Amino acid sequence: MRAVHLTSGERIPCDAVVLTCELPAAYRLLGRTPRRPARLRHSPSAVILHAGTDRTWPQLAHHTISFGSAWERTFDELTRTGDLMSDPSLLITRPTTHDPALAPPGRHLHYVLAPCPNTAVGPTAAAWRDLGPRYRDRLVADLERRGLDGFADSVQEELLVTPLDWTRQGHAAGSPFSVSHTFAQTGPFRPRNLVREVENVVLAGCGTTPGVGVPTVLISGKLAAARVTAGTGSRPARARRPRPPAARPRTGTGRCR
């Protein structure tokens, strides 16, 4: 890898490249195909309702998990049958609990997250254009049945995020949670942060080792830095020609060459 070409036409010479995008996008930029005995499986996705309301409910903490009763069936729906949760478990977050300044006086923010199947096993991204608003109404009805009476009438501003939005943002299988942590994709079996036959490209982010979550993604960045500086000793740094002092790290979209 000698340079990165941005969509703006700019060419940035480089000694090494760290790719933090989704794995399919990273391999597409490199013109490579990952070698695995089975295709990658992605985590379930999520529907998120951001609601600005004119009231709140005192029983809500900063984070409240509202569990459904059909626990085992819900896992099958999310990962196997591709159905929407028939008895949903929801994460309800109320950030104005500890920071009232996030909303105007007398107003509150609520964030409702409902896991849903990704687009590889459930409804397609396009299907969520019509499905999204209907599912939003179902979730609001569930919230009211579980004690948040008057939630529907309290909403003054809202933003609904569905797998269609995740897909538009470049998330594989319409999921913001990347490659799932099945046995065959965890620990030593998770996609490595090195790319076969490309010695100065390293991967980082939730799709590679060690996995999904803020702490683990930060660790992946540390591992990538160690690879670039040859601190891990698993791949020797190539001999480099003298170059002018390096510019500050750049980010952007484009292609690698």
Automatic annotation (TrEMBL):
- Pinpoint the Amine oxidase domain residues: 3-228
Q: Which GO terms describe its molecular function?
A: oxidoreductase activity, acting on the CH-CH group of donors
Per UniProt, which keywords does this protein have?
A: Carotenoid biosynthesis, Oxidoreductase
Q: In which residue ranges is the amino acid composition biased (Low complexity)?
A: 248-257
Q: Which GO terms describe its biological process?
A: carotenoid biosynthetic process
Pathway per its UniProt entry is: Carotenoid biosynthesis
Q: Does the keyword Oxidoreductase apply?
A: yes
Which residues lie within the region annotated Disordered? Answer: 229-257
The text of the family note is: Belongs to the carotenoid/retinoid oxidoreductase family.
Identify the PANTHER family for this entry.
PHYTOENE DESATURASE
Q: What is this protein called?
A: Amine oxidase domain-containing protein
User: What organism is this sequence from?
Assistant: Streptomyces haneummycinicus
Q: What is the lineage of its organism?
A: Bacteria, Bacillati, Actinomycetota, Actinomycetes, Kitasatosporales
